[in-house]
Amino acid sequence: MRAKSFLMLFFGVVVVLSMTLDADARRRRRRRITGTLMIESTTKGAKIFIDGDEVGSVPMGNAIRLMPGQHTVKVTKPGHTQYMETIRVRRGRRVRLEVDLLPIAGVVTLLTSPGGSRVYLDGKFVGKTPLRGLEIKAGKHTMRIAHIGFYDAIRKFQIVAGIQRKIIVQLKSLPDDINPLIPKVPPKKWYEKWWVWASAVGGLVALVTAIAVPVAMASRDVIEEFNPDRIFTVP
């Protein structure tokens, strides 16, 4: 049993070593048949695309290994110029690019309460909130935020190129009597008003009283006149 276990362990070690050597051989073979690309940039956070696929961001950790031939390199970042170039990669060679993007706009994130508000920048409609990654040219701007049932909000601000800003706006609702979001209660008809029925009841009570009192008095006189128990005295 011990000999069998030893043989199994030995063959396992041989297999692992063989796989490791094969992997090393494949890596060396790949290095011999491919080239590399290294991008140096001070634009931190910029995204790197090779042939349309995102492969990393600035700063790069390691060189990108590419097959020989032509490749399209693109580097982008919101609020900055875009870099694009076609390069030729040669076997066993390294291509080095220095890419620095220039800031040309600010990047704004706009949140409102309520959401779904319409946003107009310098009089032009730019979308509904929430807005993220909105690129605005450097300089002074006026923003109007509109939502049904709320007062418009006007904001004036200065944009600095390459700077990201976050703006949060709380809209103020319109009064209830002019707010289209609040259902209006139709006015009551004249016969539905409480004072109409109160007046009617009061008049009815007065009428009944006016009729009942004379009748009661007349009945009393009749009873006194025909009361058989009354004793008459002859003078």
Question: Topology of this structure?
Answer:
Layout: H1 2-33, E1 35-40, E2 47-50, E3 53-57, E4 64-66, E5 69-76, E6 83-89, E7 94-98, E8 105-113, E9 118-121, E10 124-128, E11 131-137, E12 139-146, E13 153-159, E14 164-170, H2 194-225
Parallel strand pairs: 1-7, 8-14
Antiparallel strand pairs: 1-4, 2-3, 2-5, 5-6, 8-11, 9-10, 9-12, 12-13
Describe it for me?
This protein is of the alpha+beta class. 27% of the residues lie in helices and 36% in strands. Strand 5 and strand 6 (83-89) form a beta hairpin. The relative contact order is 0.09. Residues 231-235 have low confidence and may be disordered.
Output the keywords.
235 residues; alpha+beta; Immunoglobulin-like; 4-stranded antiparallel sheet; 2 helices; 27% helix; elongated; disordered C terminus
Quickly describe the structure:
The protein is α+β, with helices and mostly antiparallel strands and 235 residues long. Among the domains are: 30-102, Immunoglobulins (Immunoglobulin-like, Sandwich); 105-170, Carboxypeptidase-like, regulatory domain (Immunoglobulin-like, Sandwich), CATH 2.60.40.1120. 27% of the residues lie in helices and 36% in strands.
Q: Which runs of at least 5 residues are low in confidence (pLDDT < 50)? A: 231-235
CATH architecture label of the domain at 30-102: Sandwich
Beta-strand content estimate:
35-45%
Characterize the biggest β-sheet. 4 strands, antiparallel
Give the strand order of the largest sheet, numbering strands 1, 2, ... along the chain.
3-2-5-6
Distance between the termini: 159 Å
Could you tell me the mean pLDDT?
A: 79
